[in-house]
Amino acid sequence: MDHLPGPSGVPLLGNVGIDTAHFHQKLEEWAREYGPIYRMRLMDRRFVVTSRPADIAQVLHDRPDQWRRSRRVASVLEEAAAVGVFAAEGEEWRRQRKLVMHALTPEVINRFHPRLLAMTERLRLRWQAAAQAGQPQRLLRDVKAFALDVAIGMAMGQDHDMVRHEENPLQQDIEFVFGQIARRLVAPIAWWRTIKLPADRAAEAAGLRIRAAVDGFVADARARMAANPALHDRPANLLEAMLAASDLPDSGISDETVRANAIIMVFAGEDTTANTIAWLLYLLSRNPQAAARLAEEADALAAPGQTPYLDACVQEAMRLKPVVPVLGAEAVRDVALDGVQIPAGTVIFMLLRHAFEREVPLPDGAEFRPERWLDPAMKEKFDDPARKMLPFGGGPRFCPGRYLAMSEIRTLMSMVARSFSIEALPGAPPVEEMFTFTMTPSALPVLLQPRTV
Protein backbone atom coordinates (compact mmCIF):
# COMPACT_ATOMS: atom_id res chain seq x y z
CA MET A 1 0.00 0.00 0.00
CA ASP A 2 2.98 2.33 0.48
CA HIS A 3 3.42 2.40 -3.31
CA LEU A 4 -0.13 3.53 -3.98
CA PRO A 5 -0.70 7.10 -5.16
CA GLY A 6 -2.55 9.52 -2.95
CA PRO A 7 -2.68 13.04 -1.50
CA SER A 8 0.58 13.99 0.21
CA GLY A 9 -0.86 16.05 3.05
CA VAL A 10 1.37 17.93 5.51
CA PRO A 11 4.10 16.63 7.85
CA LEU A 12 2.85 14.89 11.00
CA LEU A 13 -0.80 15.72 10.33
CA GLY A 14 -1.18 14.08 6.92
CA ASN A 15 -4.59 14.79 5.40
CA VAL A 16 -6.21 15.96 8.64
CA GLY A 17 -7.49 19.15 6.99
CA ILE A 18 -10.35 17.33 5.25
CA ASP A 19 -13.70 19.06 5.65
CA THR A 20 -15.47 16.37 7.65
CA ALA A 21 -18.91 17.67 6.69
CA HIS A 22 -18.08 16.73 3.08
CA PHE A 23 -15.73 13.84 3.82
CA HIS A 24 -17.31 11.50 1.26
CA GLN A 25 -17.11 14.05 -1.54
CA LYS A 26 -13.41 14.64 -0.87
CA LEU A 27 -12.69 10.92 -1.02
CA GLU A 28 -14.61 10.68 -4.31
CA GLU A 29 -12.74 13.71 -5.67
CA TRP A 30 -9.40 12.10 -4.83
CA ALA A 31 -10.53 8.85 -6.48
CA ARG A 32 -11.03 10.77 -9.72
CA GLU A 33 -7.59 12.33 -9.31
CA TYR A 34 -5.50 9.40 -8.05
CA GLY A 35 -7.40 6.42 -9.41
CA PRO A 36 -9.71 3.71 -8.09
CA ILE A 37 -7.39 2.72 -5.22
CA TYR A 38 -5.15 5.11 -3.29
CA ARG A 39 -3.79 5.73 0.19
CA MET A 40 -4.19 8.59 2.65
CA ARG A 41 -3.06 9.42 6.19
CA LEU A 42 -4.66 11.11 9.18
CA MET A 43 -1.84 11.83 11.64
CA ASP A 44 -0.30 8.40 12.38
CA ARG A 45 -3.22 6.41 10.96
CA ARG A 46 -2.93 5.08 7.41
CA PHE A 47 -5.90 4.28 5.21
CA VAL A 48 -6.62 2.72 1.83
CA VAL A 49 -9.52 4.05 -0.24
CA THR A 50 -10.95 1.89 -3.01
CA SER A 51 -13.72 2.10 -5.55
CA ARG A 52 -12.71 -1.10 -7.35
CA PRO A 53 -15.78 -3.36 -7.38
CA ALA A 54 -13.70 -6.52 -6.93
CA ASP A 55 -12.08 -5.09 -3.79
CA ILE A 56 -15.45 -4.14 -2.32
CA ALA A 57 -16.94 -7.55 -3.12
CA GLN A 58 -13.96 -9.28 -1.49
CA VAL A 59 -14.11 -7.20 1.68
CA LEU A 60 -17.87 -7.62 2.10
CA HIS A 61 -17.69 -11.35 1.40
CA ASP A 62 -14.85 -11.96 3.87
CA ARG A 63 -16.46 -10.25 6.86
CA PRO A 64 -16.30 -10.86 9.77
CA ASP A 65 -13.35 -13.28 9.72
CA GLN A 66 -10.96 -11.30 7.51
CA TRP A 67 -12.43 -7.83 7.92
CA ARG A 68 -14.15 -6.24 10.90
CA ARG A 69 -15.81 -2.97 11.66
CA SER A 70 -13.05 -0.57 12.61
CA ARG A 71 -12.13 -0.48 16.27
CA ARG A 72 -12.69 3.27 16.24
CA VAL A 73 -16.33 2.83 15.17
CA ALA A 74 -16.89 -0.03 17.61
CA SER A 75 -15.49 1.94 20.55
CA VAL A 76 -17.54 5.04 19.74
CA LEU A 77 -20.71 2.96 19.59
CA GLU A 78 -19.81 1.18 22.81
CA GLU A 79 -19.39 4.51 24.54
CA ALA A 80 -22.89 5.42 23.36
CA ALA A 81 -24.33 2.21 24.88
CA ALA A 82 -25.19 0.95 21.43
CA VAL A 83 -22.92 -2.03 20.82
CA GLY A 84 -25.24 -4.80 19.66
CA VAL A 85 -24.86 -6.70 16.43
CA PHE A 86 -23.63 -3.60 14.56
CA ALA A 87 -20.29 -3.55 16.40
CA ALA A 88 -19.99 -7.19 17.54
CA GLU A 89 -17.36 -9.40 15.93
CA GLY A 90 -16.53 -13.10 15.52
CA GLU A 91 -18.64 -15.66 17.35
CA GLU A 92 -20.36 -12.96 19.38
CA TRP A 93 -21.50 -11.37 16.09
CA ARG A 94 -22.80 -14.71 14.80
CA ARG A 95 -24.85 -15.26 17.95
CA GLN A 96 -26.28 -11.74 17.93
CA ARG A 97 -26.86 -11.75 14.18
CA LYS A 98 -29.00 -14.86 14.52
CA LEU A 99 -30.96 -13.16 17.28
CA VAL A 100 -31.62 -10.00 15.25
CA MET A 101 -32.48 -11.86 12.05
CA HIS A 102 -34.97 -13.95 14.03
CA ALA A 103 -36.56 -10.71 15.21
CA LEU A 104 -36.72 -9.02 11.79
CA THR A 105 -38.36 -11.67 9.65
CA PRO A 106 -40.96 -10.56 7.09
CA GLU A 107 -43.59 -12.29 9.24
CA VAL A 108 -42.78 -10.13 12.28
CA ILE A 109 -42.65 -6.96 10.16
CA ASN A 110 -45.95 -7.79 8.43
CA ARG A 111 -47.62 -8.05 11.83
CA PHE A 112 -46.36 -4.53 12.51
CA HIS A 113 -47.81 -3.19 9.25
CA PRO A 114 -51.17 -1.96 10.65
CA ARG A 115 -49.30 0.23 13.12
CA LEU A 116 -47.06 1.48 10.32
CA LEU A 117 -50.17 2.52 8.39
CA ALA A 118 -51.55 4.33 11.44
CA MET A 119 -48.28 6.23 11.91
CA THR A 120 -48.27 7.16 8.22
CA GLU A 121 -51.82 8.49 8.51
CA ARG A 122 -50.81 10.71 11.44
CA LEU A 123 -48.09 12.19 9.27
CA ARG A 124 -50.53 12.79 6.40
CA LEU A 125 -52.93 14.65 8.67
CA ARG A 126 -50.12 16.79 10.06
CA TRP A 127 -48.86 17.80 6.61
CA GLN A 128 -52.37 18.39 5.30
CA ALA A 129 -53.30 20.61 8.26
CA ALA A 130 -50.14 22.68 7.86
CA ALA A 131 -50.76 23.17 4.13
CA GLN A 132 -54.39 24.16 4.62
CA ALA A 133 -53.43 26.64 7.35
CA GLY A 134 -50.68 28.16 5.19
CA GLN A 135 -48.04 27.14 7.73
CA PRO A 136 -44.55 25.89 6.83
CA GLN A 137 -44.12 22.14 6.73
CA ARG A 138 -41.05 20.93 8.62
CA LEU A 139 -40.56 17.94 6.36
CA LEU A 140 -36.99 17.03 7.29
CA ARG A 141 -37.80 17.12 10.99
CA ASP A 142 -41.06 15.24 10.43
CA VAL A 143 -39.61 12.35 8.39
CA LYS A 144 -36.94 11.87 11.07
CA ALA A 145 -39.62 11.85 13.79
CA PHE A 146 -41.72 9.43 11.71
CA ALA A 147 -38.77 7.09 11.18
CA LEU A 148 -38.00 7.24 14.89
CA ASP A 149 -41.63 6.43 15.73
CA VAL A 150 -41.46 3.42 13.42
CA ALA A 151 -38.06 2.29 14.74
CA ILE A 152 -39.16 2.49 18.38
CA GLY A 153 -42.53 0.94 17.58
CA MET A 154 -40.98 -1.92 15.63
CA ALA A 155 -38.02 -2.40 17.95
CA MET A 156 -39.68 -1.97 21.32
CA GLY A 157 -43.45 -2.00 20.94
CA GLN A 158 -43.80 1.59 22.15
CA ASP A 159 -45.67 4.43 20.43
CA HIS A 160 -44.40 7.84 21.49
CA ASP A 161 -46.00 9.75 18.57
CA MET A 162 -42.94 11.93 18.10
CA VAL A 163 -44.40 13.28 14.87
CA ARG A 164 -46.92 15.34 16.81
CA HIS A 165 -45.04 15.75 20.11
CA GLU A 166 -41.96 17.73 19.15
CA GLU A 167 -40.63 18.09 22.69
CA ASN A 168 -40.44 14.35 23.43
CA PRO A 169 -37.39 13.97 25.71
CA LEU A 170 -36.49 10.51 24.40
CA GLN A 171 -36.36 11.82 20.82
CA GLN A 172 -34.19 14.73 21.93
CA ASP A 173 -31.80 12.35 23.72
CA ILE A 174 -31.59 9.97 20.75
CA GLU A 175 -31.03 12.79 18.26
CA PHE A 176 -28.38 14.34 20.50
CA VAL A 177 -26.47 11.10 21.12
CA PHE A 178 -26.64 10.20 17.43
CA GLY A 179 -25.18 13.61 16.57
CA GLN A 180 -22.34 13.07 19.03
CA ILE A 181 -21.61 9.64 17.54
CA ALA A 182 -21.42 11.18 14.07
CA ARG A 183 -19.13 13.98 15.30
CA ARG A 184 -16.76 11.54 17.02
CA LEU A 185 -16.54 9.15 14.08
CA VAL A 186 -15.02 11.80 11.82
CA ALA A 187 -12.81 13.43 14.50
CA PRO A 188 -9.05 13.12 13.85
CA ILE A 189 -8.37 12.42 17.56
CA ALA A 190 -10.53 11.04 20.38
CA TRP A 191 -10.36 14.16 22.57
CA TRP A 192 -13.43 13.20 24.62
CA ARG A 193 -11.49 10.38 26.31
CA THR A 194 -9.13 12.82 27.98
CA ILE A 195 -10.90 16.18 27.90
CA LYS A 196 -14.66 16.10 28.34
CA LEU A 197 -16.42 19.12 26.93
CA PRO A 198 -19.93 20.05 28.14
CA ALA A 199 -21.39 18.35 25.07
CA ASP A 200 -19.54 15.12 25.94
CA ARG A 201 -20.87 15.13 29.49
CA ALA A 202 -24.35 15.85 28.15
CA ALA A 203 -24.02 12.90 25.75
CA GLU A 204 -23.11 10.59 28.63
CA ALA A 205 -26.15 11.75 30.60
CA ALA A 206 -28.41 11.31 27.56
CA GLY A 207 -27.01 7.82 27.02
CA LEU A 208 -27.86 6.87 30.60
CA ARG A 209 -31.41 8.13 30.13
CA ILE A 210 -31.78 6.14 26.90
CA ARG A 211 -30.56 2.97 28.62
CA ALA A 212 -32.98 3.55 31.51
CA ALA A 213 -35.87 4.05 29.08
CA VAL A 214 -35.03 0.86 27.18
CA ASP A 215 -34.73 -1.06 30.45
CA GLY A 216 -38.29 0.04 31.11
CA PHE A 217 -39.34 -1.16 27.65
CA VAL A 218 -37.72 -4.55 28.33
CA ALA A 219 -39.61 -4.84 31.62
CA ASP A 220 -42.88 -3.92 29.86
CA ALA A 221 -42.25 -6.52 27.17
CA ARG A 222 -41.50 -9.23 29.71
CA ALA A 223 -44.71 -8.35 31.55
CA ARG A 224 -46.74 -8.57 28.31
CA MET A 225 -45.17 -11.93 27.46
CA ALA A 226 -45.83 -13.28 30.94
CA ALA A 227 -49.48 -12.24 30.67
CA ASN A 228 -49.76 -13.58 27.11
CA PRO A 229 -47.42 -16.56 26.53
CA ALA A 230 -48.52 -16.76 22.88
CA LEU A 231 -46.23 -13.79 22.22
CA HIS A 232 -43.27 -16.16 22.55
CA ASP A 233 -44.39 -17.84 19.33
CA ARG A 234 -45.89 -14.80 17.60
CA PRO A 235 -43.96 -11.73 18.79
CA ALA A 236 -45.34 -8.36 17.71
CA ASN A 237 -42.06 -6.47 17.67
CA LEU A 238 -38.30 -6.90 17.66
CA LEU A 239 -37.94 -6.66 21.44
CA GLU A 240 -40.45 -9.45 22.05
CA ALA A 241 -38.82 -11.59 19.36
CA MET A 242 -35.36 -11.08 20.85
CA LEU A 243 -36.58 -11.85 24.37
CA ALA A 244 -38.31 -15.00 23.12
CA ALA A 245 -35.07 -16.10 21.43
CA SER A 246 -32.98 -15.24 24.48
CA ASP A 247 -35.22 -17.41 26.67
CA LEU A 248 -34.43 -20.52 24.63
CA PRO A 249 -32.11 -23.03 26.31
CA ASP A 250 -28.40 -22.24 25.92
CA SER A 251 -29.11 -19.06 23.92
CA GLY A 252 -26.24 -17.22 25.59
CA ILE A 253 -28.21 -13.97 25.16
CA SER A 254 -28.64 -11.69 28.15
CA ASP A 255 -31.10 -8.84 28.66
CA GLU A 256 -28.11 -6.49 28.31
CA THR A 257 -27.48 -7.86 24.80
CA VAL A 258 -31.17 -7.49 23.96
CA ARG A 259 -31.10 -3.88 25.18
CA ALA A 260 -27.99 -3.02 23.16
CA ASN A 261 -29.47 -4.45 19.97
CA ALA A 262 -32.76 -2.64 20.52
CA ILE A 263 -30.87 0.65 20.88
CA ILE A 264 -28.71 0.10 17.80
CA MET A 265 -31.76 -0.82 15.69
CA VAL A 266 -33.35 2.49 16.67
CA PHE A 267 -30.19 4.43 15.77
CA ALA A 268 -29.68 2.56 12.50
CA GLY A 269 -33.32 2.58 11.45
CA GLU A 270 -34.10 6.23 12.14
CA ASP A 271 -31.38 8.09 10.28
CA THR A 272 -30.89 5.88 7.23
CA THR A 273 -34.57 5.50 6.39
CA ALA A 274 -35.41 9.15 7.07
CA ASN A 275 -32.59 10.38 4.85
CA THR A 276 -33.60 8.08 1.98
CA ILE A 277 -37.15 9.46 2.16
CA ALA A 278 -35.86 13.04 2.39
CA TRP A 279 -33.59 12.67 -0.64
CA LEU A 280 -36.40 11.08 -2.65
CA LEU A 281 -38.79 13.92 -1.82
CA TYR A 282 -36.12 16.43 -2.81
CA LEU A 283 -35.39 14.73 -6.16
CA LEU A 284 -39.08 14.38 -7.01
CA SER A 285 -39.70 18.05 -6.20
CA ARG A 286 -37.16 18.97 -8.87
CA ASN A 287 -38.47 16.49 -11.41
CA PRO A 288 -42.22 17.21 -11.78
CA GLN A 289 -42.68 14.70 -14.60
CA ALA A 290 -41.44 11.90 -12.36
CA ALA A 291 -43.64 13.14 -9.50
CA ALA A 292 -46.67 13.20 -11.82
CA ARG A 293 -46.01 9.66 -13.05
CA LEU A 294 -45.68 8.49 -9.45
CA ALA A 295 -49.06 10.05 -8.64
CA GLU A 296 -50.63 8.31 -11.66
CA GLU A 297 -49.34 4.96 -10.44
CA ALA A 298 -50.69 5.62 -6.93
CA ASP A 299 -54.13 6.53 -8.33
CA ALA A 300 -54.28 3.43 -10.53
CA LEU A 301 -52.87 1.03 -7.94
CA ALA A 302 -54.74 -2.23 -8.35
CA ALA A 303 -53.04 -4.41 -5.76
CA PRO A 304 -51.05 -3.61 -2.62
CA GLY A 305 -47.33 -3.90 -3.08
CA GLN A 306 -47.35 -3.57 -6.86
CA THR A 307 -45.54 -0.27 -7.26
CA PRO A 308 -42.95 -0.66 -10.02
CA TYR A 309 -42.48 3.06 -10.64
CA LEU A 310 -42.23 3.88 -6.94
CA ASP A 311 -39.63 1.13 -6.56
CA ALA A 312 -37.76 2.62 -9.53
CA CYS A 313 -37.85 6.05 -7.88
CA VAL A 314 -36.40 4.59 -4.69
CA GLN A 315 -33.66 2.82 -6.65
CA GLU A 316 -32.77 6.02 -8.48
CA ALA A 317 -32.68 8.05 -5.25
CA MET A 318 -30.39 5.47 -3.65
CA ARG A 319 -28.13 5.61 -6.72
CA LEU A 320 -27.80 9.39 -6.74
CA LYS A 321 -28.01 10.06 -2.99
CA PRO A 322 -27.04 6.90 -1.09
CA VAL A 323 -27.22 7.42 2.64
CA VAL A 324 -24.05 5.33 2.97
CA PRO A 325 -21.73 6.48 0.16
CA VAL A 326 -18.66 5.33 2.12
CA LEU A 327 -18.28 2.09 4.08
CA GLY A 328 -15.27 1.32 6.27
CA ALA A 329 -13.68 -1.96 7.36
CA GLU A 330 -10.50 -2.90 9.22
CA ALA A 331 -8.21 -5.78 8.21
CA VAL A 332 -8.08 -8.47 10.89
CA ARG A 333 -4.83 -9.87 9.44
CA ASP A 334 -2.53 -9.11 6.50
CA VAL A 335 -4.48 -9.42 3.27
CA ALA A 336 -4.03 -8.80 -0.46
CA LEU A 337 -6.55 -6.91 -2.58
CA ASP A 338 -5.76 -7.65 -6.22
CA GLY A 339 -2.02 -7.35 -5.69
CA VAL A 340 -2.07 -4.59 -3.05
CA GLN A 341 -0.78 -5.79 0.33
CA ILE A 342 -2.87 -4.43 3.20
CA PRO A 343 -1.33 -4.82 6.70
CA ALA A 344 -3.49 -5.99 9.60
CA GLY A 345 -5.17 -3.13 11.41
CA THR A 346 -5.42 -0.94 8.31
CA VAL A 347 -8.81 0.64 7.68
CA ILE A 348 -10.11 0.64 4.13
CA PHE A 349 -12.78 3.05 2.93
CA MET A 350 -15.00 1.64 0.19
CA LEU A 351 -16.56 4.31 -2.04
CA LEU A 352 -19.86 2.63 -2.88
CA ARG A 353 -21.38 5.43 -4.95
CA HIS A 354 -18.20 6.06 -6.93
CA ALA A 355 -17.69 2.32 -7.50
CA PHE A 356 -21.16 2.07 -9.03
CA GLU A 357 -20.45 5.07 -11.27
CA ARG A 358 -17.30 3.32 -12.52
CA GLU A 359 -18.95 -0.06 -13.06
CA VAL A 360 -22.21 1.24 -14.55
CA PRO A 361 -21.23 4.35 -16.55
CA LEU A 362 -24.38 6.21 -17.55
CA PRO A 363 -24.18 9.11 -20.04
CA ASP A 364 -27.00 10.83 -18.15
CA GLY A 365 -25.87 9.64 -14.74
CA ALA A 366 -26.31 13.03 -13.07
CA GLU A 367 -30.02 13.07 -13.95
CA PHE A 368 -32.90 11.64 -11.90
CA ARG A 369 -34.49 9.19 -14.32
CA PRO A 370 -36.41 6.45 -12.46
CA GLU A 371 -37.60 4.89 -15.70
CA ARG A 372 -34.07 3.62 -16.35
CA TRP A 373 -34.77 0.89 -13.77
CA LEU A 374 -37.80 -0.27 -15.76
CA ASP A 375 -35.78 -0.72 -18.96
CA PRO A 376 -34.82 -4.40 -19.56
CA ALA A 377 -31.98 -3.22 -21.80
CA MET A 378 -30.20 -1.66 -18.82
CA LYS A 379 -30.23 -4.94 -16.92
CA GLU A 380 -28.91 -6.76 -19.96
CA LYS A 381 -26.23 -4.19 -20.76
CA PHE A 382 -24.84 -3.89 -17.25
CA ASP A 383 -25.58 -7.38 -15.86
CA ASP A 384 -28.26 -6.44 -13.30
CA PRO A 385 -26.94 -3.09 -12.05
CA ALA A 386 -29.31 -3.06 -9.05
CA ARG A 387 -27.14 -5.75 -7.44
CA LYS A 388 -24.10 -3.48 -7.71
CA MET A 389 -25.46 -0.50 -5.75
CA LEU A 390 -25.27 -2.14 -2.29
CA PRO A 391 -27.55 0.36 -0.51
CA PHE A 392 -27.87 -2.10 2.39
CA GLY A 393 -24.30 -3.37 2.31
CA GLY A 394 -23.51 -6.90 1.23
CA GLY A 395 -22.02 -10.21 2.24
CA PRO A 396 -22.72 -11.82 5.62
CA ARG A 397 -23.16 -8.40 7.29
CA PHE A 398 -25.80 -6.96 4.97
CA CYS A 399 -28.31 -4.76 6.77
CA PRO A 400 -30.79 -6.96 8.69
CA GLY A 401 -33.38 -4.15 8.65
CA ARG A 402 -33.62 -3.76 4.88
CA TYR A 403 -37.10 -5.34 4.64
CA LEU A 404 -38.47 -2.98 7.30
CA ALA A 405 -36.77 0.02 5.67
CA MET A 406 -38.25 -0.72 2.25
CA SER A 407 -41.71 -1.34 3.74
CA GLU A 408 -41.50 1.98 5.56
CA ILE A 409 -40.32 3.91 2.49
CA ARG A 410 -42.97 2.38 0.22
CA THR A 411 -45.78 3.02 2.71
CA LEU A 412 -44.89 6.66 3.32
CA MET A 413 -44.17 7.51 -0.32
CA SER A 414 -47.39 5.81 -1.49
CA MET A 415 -49.28 8.03 0.94
CA VAL A 416 -47.50 11.15 -0.33
CA ALA A 417 -48.15 10.26 -3.99
CA ARG A 418 -51.87 9.71 -3.35
CA SER A 419 -52.42 12.73 -1.13
CA PHE A 420 -50.04 15.51 -2.18
CA SER A 421 -48.34 17.16 -5.11
CA ILE A 422 -44.60 17.45 -4.53
CA GLU A 423 -43.21 20.89 -5.34
CA ALA A 424 -39.89 22.66 -4.94
CA LEU A 425 -39.94 25.56 -2.50
CA PRO A 426 -39.35 28.70 -4.62
CA GLY A 427 -36.14 30.61 -4.00
CA ALA A 428 -34.58 28.02 -1.70
CA PRO A 429 -30.76 27.83 -1.69
CA PRO A 430 -29.06 24.70 -3.08
CA VAL A 431 -29.16 21.62 -0.88
CA GLU A 432 -25.80 20.20 0.19
CA GLU A 433 -24.79 16.63 0.97
CA MET A 434 -23.71 16.59 4.62
CA PHE A 435 -21.66 13.65 5.88
CA THR A 436 -22.16 12.57 9.47
CA PHE A 437 -22.81 8.92 10.24
CA THR A 438 -24.84 8.89 7.03
CA MET A 439 -25.28 11.34 4.15
CA THR A 440 -28.08 13.75 4.97
CA PRO A 441 -29.49 16.76 3.08
CA SER A 442 -28.59 20.13 4.59
CA ALA A 443 -32.26 21.14 4.20
CA LEU A 444 -35.44 19.90 2.57
CA PRO A 445 -36.96 22.80 0.60
CA VAL A 446 -40.03 20.87 -0.53
CA LEU A 447 -43.69 21.86 -0.37
CA LEU A 448 -46.48 19.26 -0.21
CA GLN A 449 -49.76 20.61 -1.57
CA PRO A 450 -52.93 18.57 -0.93
CA ARG A 451 -54.19 17.04 -4.14
CA THR A 452 -57.74 17.71 -5.27
CA VAL A 453 -58.18 14.44 -7.15
How would you portray this structure in words?
- The protein contains 16 helices and 11 strands.
- The longest helix has 31 residues, at 255-285.
- The chain is α+β, with helices and mostly antiparallel strands and 453 residues long.
- Helix 6 packs antiparallel against helix 7 and helix 6 (106-132) runs parallel beside helix 16.
- Helices cover 53% and strands 10% of the residues.
- Strands 1-2-7-4-3 form a 5-stranded mixed β-sheet, with helices on both faces.
Could you list some keywords that capture this structure?
single chain; 453 residues; alpha+beta; five-stranded mixed beta sheet; two-stranded antiparallel sheet; 53% helix; 10% strand; globular
Q: What distance separates the N and C termini? A: 60 Å
Shape: globular
Count of β-strands = 11
Helix/strand-derived class?
alpha+beta
The share of residues in helices is: 40-55%
Radius of gyration, CA atoms, in whole angstroms: 22 Å
Topology:
Layout: H1 23-34, E1 37-42, E2 45-50, H2 53-61, E3 67-68, H3 71-79, H4 84-87, H5 90-103, H6 106-132, H7 139-156, H8 169-185, H9 198-227, H10 238-246, H11 255-285, H12 288-299, H13 308-320, E4 326-331, E5 335-337, E6 340-342, E7 347-351, H14 352-359, H15 376-382, H16 402-419, E8 420-424, E9 433-435, E10 439-441, E11 446-450
Parallel strand pairs: 2-7
Antiparallel strand pairs: 1-2, 3-4, 4-7, 5-6, 8-11, 9-10
